[in-house]
Design goal:
This protein is of the alpha+beta class. The chain has 4 helices and 6 strands, in the order αααββαββββ. 29% of the residues lie in helices and 38% in strands. A 6-stranded mixed beta sheet has the order 2-1-6-5-4-3. The protein is globular. 18% of the residues are buried.
């Protein structure tokens, strides 16, 4: 495989990750992560914004089940996507522009929509079945970047 083909394959795997979250497809999401067989001696890990590090397939997948159960609507608009592939490992960094809605109101309407910016790092490993997620780390963007008035250089 050429590097360009690998980059495209990783981009597709990264997109599939976010699309399964949007659909609330837990089974599909589970298939995107490394299995115990794929991971060998290493364990998958995940850091959701504001959460501690989650390690191991069971703990990571339980966290996504919890998120999916408590999120009526979520949509990701990815920007600043960068992919680097080194042999059988790939690193993706991106900004997740997230629009989500909480549980439905008593009237049955979707809860208020909330926007959030999260910077994410997704690490993938090549397996015989394709690129699989090894680690996801999301950190909230708490401040706007722009002109740095008052900053000392």
């Amino acid at each position: 495989m050429t590097a360009r083909t690998d980059v495209e394959a990783v981009e597709l795997a990264n997109t599939a990750f976010y699309e399964t979250l949007e659909r609330g497809d837990f089974d599909g999401l589970s298939e995107l992560w490394l299995s115990a067989t794929d991971a060998g001696d290493t364990s998958i890990s995940c850091v959701h914004p504001g959460w501690p590090v989650l390690s191991g397939r069971g703990e990571v997948l339980r966290s996504y089940a919890l998120i999916m159960a408590n999120t009526e609507y979520i949509q990701f608009f990815l920007t600043d996507v960068k992919v680097v592939v080194l042999t059988d490992t790939a690193l993706v960094t991106c900004t997740e522009n997230i629009l989500s809605g909480g549980p439905a109101q008593e009237s049955g309407e979707l809860g208020p929509l909330v926007g959030q910016l999260v910077v994410a790092t997704n690490v993938f490993r090549r397996t015989p079945e394709g690129w699989k997620l090894w680690s996801h780390h999301g950190s909230p963007v708490l401040a706007e970047t722009g002109d740095d008035e008052g900053s000392e250089d």
